[in-house]
Write a structure and sequence with these properties.
By secondary structure, the protein is mostly beta strands. The protein has one helix and six strands.
Length: 98
């Protein structure tokens, strides 16, 4: 099969990720505040470690240093790690400072 570099991709390109090691808090819908460790972040989302049981489609608030609490939706969960998508993009300077 020949390689076609002009083919249309099926998925939108995702925002560049920045590796981080930031301990912060997340606010759950029941008003519990729990500690999480961000392991990467982009303007559109993040990956974090947490001992709290979460399920995809859960909405929460994540405290982003230098910005404040940002609303996000849990997209995936796997063995103490989860990925979230922000409801609106973080400003690039905030991501760059982390």
């Amino acid at each position: 099969m020949p390689l076609n570099l002009k083919s249309i991709t099926k998925f939108a390109a995702r925002s560049p990720r920045k590796a981080v090691d930031v301990v912060t808090n997340m606010l759950l819908l029941d008003d519990r505040e729990v500690m999480v460790r961000l392991t990467n972040i982009s303007a559109r989302g993040f990956t974090a470690l947490s001992e709290t049981a979460l399920t995809p489609a859960t909405w929460l608030g994540i405290s982003v240093p230098g910005f404040g609490i940002k609303r996000a939706e849990v997209c995936w969960v796997s063995a103490g790690e989860f990925g979230g998508r922000f409801d609106t993009c973080l400003p690039t300077p905030v991501v760059d400072r982390l």
